[in-house]
Amino acid sequence: MDKHIGIIGGGPAGLMAAETISAQGHRVTVYEAMPTVARKFLMAGKSGLNLTHAEPMADFLPRFGRARERLDAALEGFDNRAVQAWAAGLGIETFVGSSGRVFPTSMKGSPLLRSWLRRLEGQGVGISTRHRWVGFDGDAFVFETPTGPVRETFDAVVLALGGASWPRLGSDAAWVPWLEAKGISVERFRAANCGFVVNWSDHFIERFAGQPVKAVMAGEQTGEFVISRHGIEGSLVYAHSAGLRDRLEVGSAAFVIDLAPGRSLERLERDLGRQPAKASFSNRLRKGAGLDGVKAALVRELTTDTERGDTQALARKIKQLAIPLEAPRPIAEAISSAGGVVWGEVDRDFMLAKLPGIFVAGEMLDWEAPTGGYLLTACLATGRAAGEGLLRRVK
User: Fold this and answer.
1) What single-letter DSSP state applies at residue 318?
2) Through-space distance between the first and last CA atoms of the chain, rounded to whole angstroms
3) What number of other Cβ atoms are within 10 A of residue 308's Cβ?
4) Looking at residue 290, what DSSP letter applies?
5) Measured distance CA(239)–CA(223) in Å, rounded
6) Can you say how many angstroms the Cα of residue 375 is from the centroid of all Cα atoms in its chain?
7) How many whole angstroms separate alpha carbon 150 and alpha carbon 173?
8) Kind and range of the H or E element at 295?
9) pLDDT for residue 191 is more than 70
């Protein structure tokens, strides 16, 4: 076909849009600022590429919070089972882990990406790397390239430029002022799935920075997190990061954990009360609550002398230990970001109503989700939905 389609951004959302559109015979070019595509995708895959989550969609969809209503159609059109079938079509076998997360059997992202790029090449998709979009010139898109500025015009465009986390991999939100100059409202970006700053004592940092705190409960979830030199991070923290971040923005917040989820408060009070009055605090915790190492150090760090000497107060602290938070860690360190193009600017086809023919997908849009495969699934699903919307437009 004679239509020329531009995809600006070579991450999962952009590549899925390119696959969807080129499958219908259109000439598609992907423009990527970095030397190679999908750098954040590959970085995420180094520790095990979490493609999606196998839970029923009735449980899957609510993970997207207030953005669920606008994402429902895209996610139902390319759900968690579709992601697994798509990977299988690329020759990538997957398995479901004990937590319900879905991974390639190789646990890596690079084999899937190589197969995906071969498919795109076979469908005639061109990929222009080191082409950084730097704004509009009338109806044209201007790119900085190694050989100088380039102006391109398209019949339609999908913008899939990412959010604001991991800017060194390409998601730097540099596009925000160019869309705002066109009258597009963009919700400010905030860290999501992030760590938090805690004002630890120097002694605690020296002894315990880098150590995991395992088998604890926060809310209804059991898991682990890590003590860092700056505060706390890790999967259990990330699962609660949106609410903690929002509370910090309007006041104060604490990460409240149960250090002994296998023991009731009554049992803790009884077991701690049986310890000899002359026993050291460490021995009382170890024998009366089963706590030692970093868990015992957390109790010592976050309790007063009075609380440590009061059996009932100490038991309550162990069951509800509040780690006071100072601030989220910088967005550049976050796994993902909240914020982006507000939904009121986007129609049901993911097209910008004020800029007909320009579609948006992926983390550019104002949504967030926890880790566990939800982020990647939504990027793929919105990329596909934007591609389908664009196809309807160019018909």
Assistant:
1) H
2) 11
3) 16
4) -
5) 10
6) 5
7) 21
8) helix 293-301
9) yes
CB-based contact 234:216 (threshold 8 Å): no
| Cβ–Cβ under 8 Å, residues 262 and 291 | no
Q: Bridge-partner residues for 360, per DSSP? A: 159
Where do we find the tokens 């939504």?
378
Comparing C-alpha atoms, which of 159, 143, 163, 139 is closest to residue 151? 143
Sign of CA dihedral 259, 264, 269, 275: negative
| Structure confidence at residue 147 as a pLDDT band (50, 70, 90) | very high
Q: Alpha helix locations (H) across 7-125?
A: 12-22, 39-45, 57-60, 68-77, 80-89, 110-122
40 pLDDT more than 90: yes
The sheet carrying 94-96 orders its strands as 52-53, 101-104, 94-96
Q: Which two tokens stand for residue 108?
A: 């890596």
pLDDT tens column, 367-383: 999 999 999 999 999 99
d(CA 34, CA 38) in angstroms, rounded, equals 9
Distance (Å, whole) CA 40 – CA 243: 25
